[in-house]
Each structure stands twice: as C-alpha cells, then as structure tokens.
C-alpha cells in the first residue's frame, strides 16, 4: 500500500506535496460562506468548526504557473504571497477557529512565506506557536526542526546555497534531532526521511503542470487551497530539493543501527491463532472494500451454487459483480513490478534498506515532470486495486472459521476525477451503500470491515479539480450534500442491521475526528471507529483521534497479502480496523451467540488503557483477553 503518511492527505489534488510530514499540511479545501452561528453571538468572534466555513478568497493568475514557482524574482509570486498572507492574517484575527489542526495549517503557510522572505525571527516565533498547537508528540517535538535548520544554515553561511550552506543545514538538523527522544519519535524520524525521497524537481513540477496549470487555464485564478500549494511548491524548490541530500544524511546519522524491529512488539504475545476449525463455528465477515484476489482466500469464500457470494459496483456506481476491478491490460501485466514498487515505498517508509527500497528510490528520482501525473494515477489505481486484498488478509489471519462475503466498490483514480461529484452522484452512491448493507444482512454477516470514510475534504478537493468553474459556494454545497446524504444512508442501513458490528477505519490525516467531517462520523451502538498504533502500542503519527475513536489496534508496518500472493508491509488505519474485525470474528467463532452489544463490550472492557487518544485514555485492543472473555461467557 502507499505509505500511510502519503494517504493522510489523500483529499488533496497534490500527490507530491502531500507527502511531507514535517511541512505544512496542505489540507485546506474550498471555502464557503461564514458560519451560520456567527449572527447568534454578535459580540464574539464568529466560530469556525468546519473547513467549509472559511470565507472565500480568490487570487487572479494567468499564463504559465511554473515561472511563478521557480523564478526567484517573480512579481506574480510576490503579489500572490502578499495577498495570501493578508487573507490568512485576516482569518486568524476575525474568527475563532475551534480546530487546532486548521490553525496549525494556516500558521504553516505563513511560516513558509516567512522563510521564503527571510523573516527569520517571525518564522521562529511561528514554529513555536505551531508546536503549542500540536496534539501529537511528533508534532510538538519534531515539527519545525528542518525549518530551524534552514534558518541556522543561512545565518552560519551567510547564504542559502552552496556546499557550506548544505553542510551547515545538515549539522544543525543532526544537532536538533539528537536532542529529541528517539524511542518516542523513531517512526516520525523514518517517515520524515522517507518523505525526502519524494522531493524531486520532477515530481514537484509535475504537480504544478498537472494540477495547478489546468486550474489557472480554466479559471484565470486560484483559491486559497491551491494558492497555498503554490507557496508550498516554491518553498520546496527553493529549500527542500537543494537540501534533500543533506537532510537525508542527517536522519541517517540518527537512525543508524536502529531498525523498526528493534522496537518492542506487544502484539505477538497477545495474538490468537486457530490452527483448525475443530471446535469453532463458522462466522461470516463482510469485506467492504475495493475487492480481493479470490485465489488467495478460496477456502474461506462464501459460495452459492459454486459461485462466490459478492456484490460489486464500478466507479460509475454501476453494478459490476466481479471480485476485483477491471484494470488496463498494460497495468495488469506489470503486477509484479507494481507490487515491488509498493513494497519499496513501504520499505522507504520504515527506513529498511532493501533492493525494493533502492529501486523505488531510483524510480522516484528519475520521474520527469511531464510523466508525474501518469505515475501517480497508476499508483492510485494500483493502490485501490490491491487495497481490499491486503485488508482481507488481516481480517481472516489465523481464523479458518472465517467466511468472507465481499461488498466491492471503487473510486476514481485520475487527476481529474471521473465521475465528478454531484448531488445526483451522491444519491446514487447512497443507494449503493444501502444495497451493500442489505447484501451483508442477507449473507448473515456478523462483522463488517470498512477501511474508508468519504471525507468532506475529499469531495471538496475532487470538485476543485473537476468542476473548477462552478462557484465556490456551489462546490461546498455539493460536498456538504454528499457527506450528509451518505451519512444518512449509512445510519439507516446500520440501524436496520443491529446484528452486525460495523468496524471502520478512523482515517489517516492525523486530525481530530471532531473537526474532520466524513460520512462515517456516526455514533451508533453497532459502529466502532478504530485508530492505529504501532508495534509497541504507541500512537501512529498519521492516525485520526477523537471522542468517536474508541479502540486502537496495530496499523503500522502490518504484514499483508497483495494480488498474486506476494507480501507487503502496510501502514494505516485501514489495517488497524481489520485487526479488530479479526478478533471479533474469532470471538464469534468460539461463542457464536454473542450479541453485537456483547462483542463491543468485551472488546472495550478487555482493552489496555493507555494515556492519550483524547477519549479518557487510548484503548489498545487485547486479542487474547478478548477471545478468552468470549469463551468464558
């Protein structure tokens, strides 16, 4: 799978810039009218609780965008930068922004402008403020160290280029990293190093040509999100690309001799694996995902008259009852190469020195700007194609009594989404969701995995790319309609299926679900949102948190199967959720009479409670204790 910190900004049109963990998260999407609650409190600052409540801004821009990003003295960039700074400052003064993460994002764009304009004192103060706003230890400790190294190197060398400058930047970053607690931040160090592999001129300019230029051609202007992407691209070209090698060496010096496997693994001792079906009751589980390779799970597939029991829909929401999506023959013929690329990207993420990692690093470095869009589209398509197989392998591992019913759906993988979100599409998708829930009920499924969420930001980003000429307010209204419509469909479907425990991934944007709206942000007695921790039980840098995230499971470097039968280590809440499904199915295999309420009660009661999570403590699933408690019922 694509590394988790790549997926964490999956709602963006950006594919290169979204990978940066230490940099500003460009997750702001389209804007809308002011919050309707503002009028009720005339003396207070209007409160913003959703991304869609930001005021609308537009920045005129015509012609070729690349010089705006590349040219050191571009007057167009200077004009754009001044306007963006003015508008973000205005938002920060005028509104009470409830979401600390959104405030960090806005401060982050101002930070990049400070650095580009050599306003070092302002930049250092802003780095400190962003750390105070961080909810996670990685954000508090690690965020900003690369920016501080840039400032230190400029001061020490008197310039922002050349060998001495690069050496000073490397020295400053090493010194900063060595002051940080390695055991707490090891994963973040590895991810930050991996991100540097995606900072190539070809990939960044590919983003400019493939995403920003079409928007300018259509509209003659940019909105706040895409204007911020211009700022981000300029900073990357000015500072991150020239320093990528030096910063990689800095992380290498700190990571030397320390591997992922050196961290304690709490999950091995807690795991439960059944060797045979003896004494077990078969239990039907639903895999609601992109499909699966039936050859890998043949003995466990539910069949009727010899045919695999499934329901499937293509990206246009037409019924297409195949276990996997139809791929172009040219891409399918490269299955082994695509799997190797994904293994390599995962190894890069974990700082594993492997032939696959070296090949992936070389491939990324060699992609020219004009090929970047095609590369990322193929990565997105393969990620969707293989995702369900990986999820299924986690859900059924060590449980020969598991029986699989497949609900397959797929989404657009292209830079310009096809189909484009609309009210009509949302209605069709809602009908599809209802049909899939009904299918699981008919198949007597007891637990369903849903490693997807349909966030508002995703719809906004898609509309920015495929409906750029629509008024901003209309795009926001469509996105809001889509999320609300899908949520109503899911509430209706799940409420009508109390016998099924629905287990959903919390998401990988590193946000609080209280402010990150998505279709599965639902509080129902038979829905469980699952966050991700690593092998030591420490909160993953990418996981969403919040009051609705009631259980955490291993979602870091999880061993999975991919189409064709190969193995891959994958990270994300997409793989924490099926770990919970796995345990729930084992509980039902030993005690089939358990109700959904009893299943959930045991899972939560037997969990280990650790500090964090924003919900009275972070509950770590304990598979052995949960299955033992189920046996004792």
Brief write-up:
With 633 residues, this protein is of the alpha/beta class.
Detailed description of the structure:
By secondary structure, the protein is an alpha/beta fold. It folds into two domains: 66-258, no CATH class; 267-332 and 385-631, 3-Layer(aba) Sandwich (Rossmann fold). The chain has 22 helices and 17 strands. It has helices at 4-7, 66-70, 75-94, 100-116, 120-133, 137-141, 145-157, 163-178, 182-196, 201-219, 224-255, 267-270, 329-332, 335-349, 355-366, 372-396, 423-442, 456-466, 472-495, 573-590, 596-605, 623-631; strands spanning 47-48, 58-60, 96-97, 221-223, 283-289, 303-304, 307-308, 310-312, 402-408, 447-450, 501-505, 527-533, 549-554, 558-561, 567-570, 608-610, 618-620. The strands form six sheets. It has a seven-stranded parallel β-sheet with strand order 8-9-5-10-11-12-13, sandwiched between helices. Strands 1-3 form a two-stranded parallel ribbon. Strands 2-4 form a two-stranded antiparallel sheet. β14 (558-561) and β15 (567-570) form a beta hairpin. The radius of gyration is 24 Å and the shape is globular.
Q: What percent of the residues sit in helical stretches (DSSP H or I)? A: 40-55%
What assembly state would you assign to the polypeptide chains in this entry?
single chain
CATH class of the largest domain: Alpha Beta
Number of beta-strand segments: 17
Q: Describe the strand arrangement of the main beta sheet, using strand numbers.
A: 8-9-5-10-11-12-13
Unreliable parts = 4-42
Q: Which structural class fits the helix and strand makeup?
A: alpha/beta
- What distance lies between the first and last C-alpha atoms, to the nearest angstrom? 38 Å
**What shape does the CA trace take?**
globular
In the CATH hierarchy, the third-tier topology of the largest domain is known as Rossmann fold
**What is the averaged pLDDT score?**
90
Largest sheet: 7 strands, parallel
The CATH architecture of the largest domain comes to: 3-Layer(aba) Sandwich
For the record, what is the CATH homologous superfamily label of the largest domain?
Peptidase S8/S53 domain
Portion of residues in beta strands equals 5-15%
What is the tally of helical segments? 22
Count the domains: 2
Please compute the radius of gyration using only Cα atoms. 24 Å
């Amino acid at each position: 799978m694509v590394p988790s910190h790549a997926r964490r900004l999956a709602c963006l049109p950006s594919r290169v810039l979204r990978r940066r963990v230490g940099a500003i998260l460009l997750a702001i999407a389209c804007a809308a009218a002011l919050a309707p609650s503002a009028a009720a409190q005339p003396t207070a600052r209007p409160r913003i609780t959703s991304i869609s409540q930001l005021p609308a801004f537009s920045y005129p821009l015509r012609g070729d965008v690349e010089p705006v990003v590349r040219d050191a003295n571009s007057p167009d960039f200077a004009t754009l930068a001044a306007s963006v700074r003015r508008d973000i400052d205005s938002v920060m003064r005028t509104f009470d922004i409830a979401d600390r993460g959104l405030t960090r994002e806005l401060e982050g764009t101002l930070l990049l402008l400070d650095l580009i304009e050599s306003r070092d004192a302002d930049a250092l103060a802003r780095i400190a403020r962003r750390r105070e706003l961080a909810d996670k230890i990685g954000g508090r400790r690690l965020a900003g160290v690369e920016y501080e190294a840039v400032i230190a190197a400029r001061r020490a060398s008197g310039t922002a280029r050349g060998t001495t400058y690069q050496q000073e930047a490397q020295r400053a970053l090493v010194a900063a990293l060595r002051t940080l607690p390695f055991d707490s931040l090891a994963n973040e160090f590895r991810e930050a190093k991996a991100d540097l592999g995606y900072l190539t001129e070809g990939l960044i300019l590919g983003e400019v040509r493939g995403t920003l230029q079409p928007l300018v051609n259509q509209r003659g202007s940019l909105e706040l999100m895409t204007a911020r992407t211009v700022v981000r691209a300029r900073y990357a070209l000015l500072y991150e690309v020239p320093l990528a090698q030096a910063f990689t060496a800095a992380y290498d010096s700190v990571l030397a001799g320390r591997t992922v496997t050196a961290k304690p693994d709490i999950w091995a001792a807690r795991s439960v694996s059944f060797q045979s079906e003896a004494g077990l009751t078969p239990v039907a589980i639903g895999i609601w995902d992109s499909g699966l390779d039936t050859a890998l799970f043949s003995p466990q597939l539910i069949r009727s008259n010899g045919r695999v029991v499934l329901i499937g829909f293509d990206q246009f929401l037409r019924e297409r009852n195949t276990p996997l999506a139809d791929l172009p023959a040219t891409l399918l013929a490269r299955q082994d190469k695509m799997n190797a690329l994904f293994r390599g990207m995962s190894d890069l993420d974990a700082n594993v020195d492997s032939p696959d990692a070296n090949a992936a690093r070389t491939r990324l470095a060699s992609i020219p700007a004009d090929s970047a869009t095609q590369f990322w589209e193929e990565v997105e398509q393969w990620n969707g194609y293989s995702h369900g197989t990986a999820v299924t392998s986690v859900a059924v591992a060590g449980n020969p009594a598991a029986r699989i019913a497949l609900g397959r759906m797929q989404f657009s993988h292209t830079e310009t989404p096809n189909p484009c979100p609309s009210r009509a599409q949302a209605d069709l998708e809602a009908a599809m969701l209802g049909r899939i829930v009904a299918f699981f009920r008919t198949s007597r499924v007891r637990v369903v995995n849903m490693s997807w969420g349909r966030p508002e930001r995703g719809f906004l980003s898609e509309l920015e790319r495929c409906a750029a000429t629509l008024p901003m307010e209309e795009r926001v209204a469509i996105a809001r309609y889509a999320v609300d419509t899908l949520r109503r469909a899911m509430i209706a479907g799940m409420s009508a299926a109390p016998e099924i425990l629905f287990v959903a991934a919390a998401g990988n944007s590193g946000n609080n679900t209280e402010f990150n709206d998505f279709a599965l942000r639902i509080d129902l007695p038979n829905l469980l949102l699952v966050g991700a921790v690593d092998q030591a039980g420490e909160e993953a840098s990418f996981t969403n948190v919040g009051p609705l995230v009631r259980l955490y499971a291993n979602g870091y470097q999880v061993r999975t199967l991919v189409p064709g039968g190969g193995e891959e280590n994958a990270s994300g809440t997409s793989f924490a959720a099926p770990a919970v499904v796995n345990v729930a199915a084992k509980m039902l295999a030993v005690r089939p009479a358990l109700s959904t309420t009893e299943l959930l009660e045991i899972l939560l009661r037997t969990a280990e409670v650790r500090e964090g999570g924003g919900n009275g403590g972070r509950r770590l699933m304990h598979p052995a204790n949960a299955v033992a408690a189920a046996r004792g019922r």
